[in-house]
Prior knowledge:
By secondary structure, the chain is mainly α. Helices cover 65% and strands 0% of the residues. The protein is rod-shaped.
Amino acid sequence: MPRGGKKGHKGRGKQFSNPEEIDRQMKAQREREENEGAEEKESGSDSEEETSSSDDEPKRKGVEGLIEIENPNRVSHKSKKVAELDVSAKEAPRELSRREREEIEKQQAKERYMKLHLEGKTEQARADLARLAIIKKQREDAAKKREEQRKAKEEQSKAKR
């Protein structure tokens, strides 16, 4: 025998629906269906704007269409149209976060520096150009020296003959 807890429900009286109540519910449901049918016929003859509004609701799967859900945390994923995105972007430009703004400023500063560097106006560019000039001078001197040594060898070889 089970200890304590709930007792069975076998002795309770049964509840039946009132036939008048059932008839009233059936009539109300038929009226709703007829109203929906009439609205669908009217919307079919109207412009395309109303048909696009019916596309906003996604097609419900399974029992979801029968149960009405009122969950404020539930996010419905709606596909956005390109025209709507462009309009919203033009009307109110999104304000950038601090990190995004700093990143953009950093990129712009880098581009400005590279532009000045290529023009030779930065200190680093001047140092690089000076270093290149020194190396160029050294290479020219080394090339002259090799040329002189080569000529000297040719003269020695001619003198021996």
